[in-house]
Amino acid sequence: MTDRPLAYVAGPLFDEGERWWIEQIDTLVADTGFRTFLPHRDNPPKDEFNVRAIFENDKRAIDECDLVVANLNGVITDDGTAWELGYAHARGKYIIGLHTDWRMRFAHEVVNLMMECSLDRLVRSPDDLRAALAEFLDART
């Protein structure tokens, strides 16, 4: 049994760059003191026979996690990530959104207001993420 909290690391995974970035985020989260669930690492490769099992596994990981860290980069936030955020918010999970993309989408919002208002914290750099994670851990002690 470990006392390290579990972080669900969410974000798009559709190309090598997205997978590389989410793995960097995962490493940062783990190095800060968390166990992590990373969907493309902690599920079997997706095929036509296991889509439901992957969905259930991801949903269970959100149910069991202590917080969600979500990569919100892109012109539009990934739809799977948006679902994970909504589900995590409904379950009362602490959510940190990471948005390092400098493109403006809205005049007074960083991301869509429904996602932005679901976040407990929005950070704009890996250093800010590290600090937010440390604050989360400090608040637990």
Q: Can you tell me the overall shape?
A: globular
- Gyration radius, to the nearest Å? 14 Å
Q: How many E strands?
A: 5
- What is the total number of structural domains? 1
Give the helices and strands as they follow along the chain: EHEHEHEHEH
Beta fraction: 5-15%
* Alpha-carbon distance between the two ends: 18 Å
CATH topology: Rossmann fold
Which runs of at least 5 residues are low in confidence (pLDDT < 50)? none
Q: What quaternary form is this? A: single chain
- Strand arrangement within the widest β-sheet reads 2-1-3-4-5
* Main sheet attributes: strand count, strand direction, barrel closure: 5 strands, parallel
Description:
- With 141 residues, the chain is α/β, with parallel strands linked by helices.
- The chain has one domain (6-140): Rossmann fold, CATH 3.40.50.
- 43% of the residues lie in helices and 15% in strands.
- It has a five-stranded parallel beta sheet, sandwiched between helices.
- The model has no long low-confidence stretch (mean pLDDT 94).
